[in-house]
Design a protein that fits this description.
With 357 residues, the chain is of the alpha/beta class. It folds into 2 domains: 7-165, Rossmann fold; 168-352, Dehydroquinate synthase-like - alpha domain (Dehydroquinate synthase-like, alpha domain, Up-down Bundle), CATH 1.20.1090.10. It has helices at residues 14-22, 36-41, 43-46, 71-83, 98-110, 124-130, 168-185, 187-195, 201-221, 236-247, 256-273, 279-292, 300-311, 340-352, and strands spanning 7-9, 30-35, 57-62, 91-96, 116-121, 135-140, 143-150, 155-158, 323-328, 331-336. The protein has a 6-stranded parallel β-sheet. It has a two-stranded antiparallel ribbon with strand order 6-7. α5 (98-110) crosses α6 (124-130), α10 crosses α13 (300-311) and α11 (256-273) packs antiparallel against α12. The longest helix is centred in the middle third of the chain and has 21 residues, at 201-221.
């Protein structure tokens, strides 16, 4: 079954109001979900074009960061929606990055068994990944996206001007998902990335539509992740484990995209160890990533905890890790079960890798 997601690129904020009218939502209750950063930097860019100049909208604010993707936050948001008598004709507009889109989509798809929602992603990562594909979710007990749904918003709206508000680190974090899309789905885009003189915002903005389309085409043929959609998990088994591990201590700081970049390196190493790719290709991928991302301090004493986190990965079956690997650029293979020794070796490889910055 082919499933389509409605994605619209707008050049001017007033197009958002026209979209609400188009879906007969401009007169109902409009809720805006945003974190502290998007409330400060992104909402002012669109507020005047919302009904009543934004005064008719009800703002639901959550703190920045992955800690907001929790059952506790979800419960608070359900209570706020009930307080303001939201119903199934209301609309929730998620204005933010991956955390806001994941959380807001989960709230909207479960409140009263489903209310209207629109994703308005404000980061590179959200525009090419989190807001595309209909996955929603919250974290639980320190594990990523343990509770969630498959459900599409009525629209995903891409407003490129939001990206001008991002610090460089956030831009690069989002670019990691674009790297993944190119590796699993587009030799042409991968070659363009490797040859690019600068990975600056103009280059990234120019390639966002191409990256979105790779994911969109995979998802439209496998919405519920029974087959080929699993290709999108490349870099995420180890990447999610690193991210969850870092979240366990407040002093550690690792963005989702940064964790995915490291996960791609580790899982490229495993792909080589399995005999799927040449050492030359592994080096090409990992040296490219190491030029643009920082390594993290790992110690062998921490490997046990990382493996324990991986065992809770929702892609696994029983006690067996289920991983997506690659056999070449544009050739991802799903449902691979590398031995634990190989996974440990990949962590050692990451620990010792000579990153450029």
């Amino acid at each position: 079954m082919v499933v389509e997601q409605s994605i619209r690129v707008i050049e001017k904020p007033k197009e958002l109001f026209n979209l609400l009218k188009e879906h007969s939502l401009s007169e109902g209750k409009i809720f805006l979900l945003a974190d502290s950063s998007t409330s400060e930097h992104c909402l002012p860019l669109i507020q005047n074009e919302l009904p009543g100049g934004g005064r008719k909208c009800i703002l639901l604010n959550v703190p920045d960061g992955e800690s907001s993707k929790s059952i506790e936050t979800a419960t608070q948001l359900y209570s706020r929606l009930m307080e303001y008598q939201a119903d199934r004709s209301s609309v929730l507009i998620n204005v933010g990055g991956g955390m806001v889109c994941d959380l807001g989509g989960f709230i909207a798809s479960t409140f009263k068994r489903g209310m209207n929602w629109i994703n308005l992603p404000t980061t590179v990562l959200a525009q090419v990944d989190a807001a595309i594909g209909g996955k929603t979710g919250i974290n639980h007990l320190g594990f990523k996206n343990m509770i969630g749904t498959f459900n599409f918003p009525i629209e995903t709206v891409i407003y490129p001007a939001f990206l001008n508000t991002l610090p460089k680190r956030e831009v690069l974090a989002g670019f990691a998902e674009m790297i993944k899309h190119a590796i699993i789905g587009s030799p042409e885009q991968w070659n363009d990335m490797v040859k690019a003189q600068y990975l600056d915002l103009p280059f990234i903005q120019k390639n966002i539509a191409r990256s979105m389309e790779i994911k969109r085409q995979i998802v439209r043929h496998d919405f519920k992740e029974k087959g080929d959609r699993k290709k999108l998990n490349f870099g995420h088994t180890i990447g999610h484990a690193l991210e969850s591990f870092m979240l366990e201590s407040p002093e550690r700081n690792l963005l989702h995209g940064e964790a995915v970049a490291l996960g791609i390196m580790a899982e490229s190493f495993i792909s080589h160890q399995k005999g799927y790719i040449t050492e030359s290709l592994m080096t090409e991928i990992n040296s490219f990533i190491a030029q643009h991302y920082k390594g993290i301090n790992l110690h062998q004493s921490q490997y046990h905890r990382l493996v324990e986190i991986m065992r809770h990965d929702k892609k696994g079956k029983g006690n067996q890790l289920n991983m997506t690997l690659i056999k070449g650029i544009g050739d991802a293979v799903i449902n691979r079960n590398p031995p634990m020794e190989m996974i440990i070796d990949s962590l050692t490889y990451l620990e010792r890798y000579p990153f450029n910055n």
